């Protein structure tokens, strides 16, 4: 099955599913924070719960290998029904007043294991549902809905939780999982002739995936880029309250900063979704990394709130450009039989990057000024951008030599 246009029935169903599920997930994060705070009186248990949900992603390369071996539809449908049921279990125990933090951590761990297959599955599925020239636009559209969902979910999540209570918001998230399962049932998954065989040891295929990743300098650079994207973004959540205080702003300034960051990402995703046919993924990654570095330096040096907000807008734009370009590159340039494994490896790198960076920032934040940390991350992005540029130039030169 080859899609003849971007907006076909299968992609539309997947896009709608992502949109409504993204809003539910944002509501869940807000509701979970308040629910755990109500139960324990300490925000540290929220961090423990998030860590429990992320821990299974160490097995993401294995999940990616499984994606390369199976017809994924039934597993995705069942998995979303399971995730929806887990949300409803929290609501049930909460309604009867028997919910405790250990149950929530246990559910988070189960959600992590069930969710392992989704990142590589959707990354592999999307280029099969749209024309190859429109893969970049399709990724941008998914990114656009995700960013808008986050903006709406986090902006209005607190209001909704205050009005309806955290249990009701978690119930809504459970419904969105069930809706996603229903929409997946309606999607016609293409039949693919896989090179992988059930006779081959699954761990051998995991190893084969790593070997394939290491066989290309450009491909090897992509998880490194994802890692440094995470360690440049996630610490902002810790450092921005300090920066806002220095600029004479409070929590409202913090909220405006991240809202503007999302708006920058939305703007770029919208642009790519409209004009990103045959997206030049390598060039746009170079531009995006450079823009991120410039913006992060701007945040560090900003003498006032206005400059800080402009830098936030530019940083959000850069992250969207890099993320969309990298994912599109793998979906269009990597052999189909390896995509699940490659995206599985990416999943581990992304999940490890965030807690690692938060732990480092937590250690240094009492020792050095926030600006020093931000300048350090700026320098790291400059280095990564420069290495990416050199690797791509070498690749282009080697192709020119081959042609001659």
Automatic annotation (TrEMBL):
It is found in: Cell membrane. Pfam families: MFS_3 (PF05977). Its main location: membrane. Residues 10-395 form the Major facilitator superfamily (MFS) profile domain. It is a multi-pass membrane protein. The chain crosses the membrane at residues 12-37, 43-63, 75-95, 101-119, 140-164, 170-189, 210-233, 253-272, 293-322, 342-365, 372-391. The keyword Coiled coil does not apply. This is Permease. PROSITE patterns: MFS. Keywords: Cell membrane, Membrane, Transmembrane, Transmembrane helix, Transport. It comes from Kroppenstedtia guangzhouensis.
């Amino acid at each position: 099955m080859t899609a003849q246009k971007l907006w076909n029935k299968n992609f539309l169903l997947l896009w709608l599913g992502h949109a409504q599920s993204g809003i539910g997930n944002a509501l869940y994060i807000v509701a979970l924070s308040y629910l755990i705070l109500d139960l324990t009186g300490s925000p540290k248990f929220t961090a423990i719960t998030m860590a429990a949900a992320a821990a299974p992603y160490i097995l993401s390369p294995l999940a990616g290998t499984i994606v390369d071996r199976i017809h994924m539809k039934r597993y995705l449908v069942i998995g979303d029904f399971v995730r929806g049921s887990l949300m409803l279990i929290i609501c049930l125990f909460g309604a009867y007043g028997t919910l405790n933090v250990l149950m929530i951590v246990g559910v988070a761990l189960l959600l992590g294991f069930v969710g392992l297959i989704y990142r590589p599955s959707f990354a592999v599925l999307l280029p099969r549902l749209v024309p190859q020239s429109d893969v970049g636009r399709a990724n941008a559209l998914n990114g656009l809905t995700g960013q808008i969902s986050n903006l709406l979910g986090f902006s209005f999540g607190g209001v909704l939780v205050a009005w309806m209570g955290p249990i009701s918001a978690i119930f809504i998230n459970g419904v969105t999982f069930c809706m996603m399962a229903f929409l997946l049932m309606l999607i016609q998954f293409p039949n693919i002739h896989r090179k992988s065989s059930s006779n081959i040891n699954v761990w051998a295929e995991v190893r084969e995936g790593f070997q394939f990743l290491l066989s290309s300098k450009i491909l090897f650079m992509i998880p490194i880029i994802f890692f440094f994207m995470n360690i440049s973004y996630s610490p902002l959540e810790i450092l921005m309250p300090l920066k806002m205080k220095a600029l004479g702003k409070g929590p409202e300034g913090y909220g405006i900063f991240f809202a503007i960051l999302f708006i920058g990402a939305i703007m770029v995703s919208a642009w790519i979704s409209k004009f990103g046919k045959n997206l030049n993924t390598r060039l746009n990654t170079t531009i995006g990394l450079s823009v991120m570095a410039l913006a992060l330096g701007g945040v560090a040096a900003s003498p006032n709130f206005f400059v800080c907000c402009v830098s936030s807008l530019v940083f959000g734009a850069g992250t969207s450009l890099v993320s969309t370009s990298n994912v599109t590159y793998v979906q269009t340039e990597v052999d189909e039989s390896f995509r699940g494994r490659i995206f599985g490896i990416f999943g581990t790198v992304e999940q490890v990057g965030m807690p690692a960076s938060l732990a480092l920032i937590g250690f240094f934040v009492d020792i050095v000024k926030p600006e020093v940390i931000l300048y350090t991350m700026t320098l790291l992005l400059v280095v990564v951008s420069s290495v990416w540029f050199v690797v791509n130039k070498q690749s282009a030169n080697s192709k020119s030599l081959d042609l001659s």
